[in-house]
Amino acid sequence: MQAVHRSPYAGSWYPDDAVEIQALLESAFARSERRTGVYLPEQALAFVTPHAGPAYSGTVAAAVYRTIARIRPEHIVVLAFPHRGGFSGVGIPDVERISTPLGELEVAPMPGVPRVEEPWVCDHSFEIQIPFLQRAAPEARVTPLYVGAMGEEARRSAADRLAAAWRPGMVFVASSDFNHYGHAFQYLPFPVDWDTGERLRELDLDCAEAAGSIDAGLFLRTVHEHRATVCGTDPIALLLEVLQQLAPGSIYQSVLDYQTSGELTGDFHHSVSYAALAYSRRESFDLSDSDGEALLHAATETLRCLRQTGESRPVTARGSAALEGRRGMFVSLHRGGELLGCIGSLSGRDTLASAAGELALSAALDDPRFRPAAETAGPMDVEISVLTPFRRILDSPQLRAGRHGALLKMSGRSGVLLPQVATEHEWNAEQFLAALARKTHLAPRCWRDPKARLSVFEAQVFARRGAVGS
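RESULT FIELD:
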C-alpha cells in the first residue's frame, strides 16, 4: 500500500496554495448562500454533487457541503468513477492518505470492498471533492469508493454490502456532473439558440426527476432514452440501490441548486450542467408544532385583515429557520364540511414563511370553482398542507391511499390531489388515481400510459377550526 498519494489536481483544477484554495472555497460557500438562502436540510442520508473545477461547479457543490457541515456526519462515503473507463465493480484506492494543499486526508476502509491500485482509478470525480470535504467535515472519516460499470445483479450485490455497512452518522455522496452539451462532447440534442439554456434545464431536471424516483432502473432508462451525457450514472445508480435498501418507499429527493457553465460564461456552445441533490427520509421534512402554528397565524391574520378592511395584505410567518425552506404548500378554507376554496403552489418558489399568507389570500379570492370565500358569512376553518418533495412512481401499487398525494402530468395537462382527499372519501389507490385523472380531464387509467408522469408526495397538515370569525 502506498502511504501518501499527492493529488495531481492541485495546481491545475484548483490552486496549489492553501490560502488561495481556502479563499476559493469561502467564496463558493458565500455565493451558495446568496443563491439558495440560509435554509439547509436538517438531515440527509445521501447527496449528488458535481465535480468540475471549483471555479465552475463550486457554487453548486457548496450547497451540498454547506448541508454536510450542518449535519456533521462521522463517516462520508464518496461514490466516484474513473472518466477514462476500463473499470468495473467497486474499489477503494490502495493508499493510506491523500495530500492536498489543505493537508492530508486519511482513506477509511469499507468492509467487503477490495483495494485497487491508485493509478488505475485516480480521477477528479473524487479528488475535486477533497478540498470541500476538508472544509466542511474535517473530522469525518472518508471512504473514496470508485464505481465502474456493473450489471443489475452486480450493482445490487454492491448495494447490499454498502447498506449492511451503514450506521447512523454515515452519509453517501455520489459524484456526477449532469449533461455535457456541445460539439466537443458530441452531444447536440437541440441547436444552440436563445432557448438552449431552458431546454438544457428541462433535460437535466428530467434526469434528476428520474433519480428522485429512487429507482436505479428508471434512472438508467431515462438517461438512455435521452442519450444523456450524465457522466456519473454508475455512482448515482448504485446510490439509489443503497437508498432503496435502507429506507424503501420513504426517501424524497430535494434539488438544493442547479446551474450550467453556459450560464456562467454566457456561451452555450460548450456547456456542462451541475446539480446538487439531497436524499432524506420522510420525517426529516416535518415542521415543529410551533412552526405550524406560525403558518396558521400568518394565514388567519391575513384573512382577518381581508374581511375587516377589504385589503389584501399577506402576513409573513415568524418561526424557525425551517420556514425559510422552499416547498409546495396548499391552503384550504372550509365552513363545516363545505370547501370554500383551496389554492396551492407546487414549485416552492416562495419560502414557507411568505407562502402561507399569499396562498390564504388566493384561496379566499381566486379559486375559480367557488364564489370568493371572503364574501361568505360565518367562521372559516383554515387548513395548511406542507408538502414533501415529489417522487416519481410507475404504477398504483407504489401509492398508499391516505398517506400519499399525487401529481399527474400528461398531454400538457396536470392535476394534483392531496393525501387527505382519499381519507375523506374512503378511497383505495385505484379510486384515488381515477379521481385524479377525472380532475385532470384525462382517461380514468391514463397513469398507465408510458407518456404519463405520476408522482407521489406526503403532506404535514396543520388546521385551525373557526380560525376566522364572522
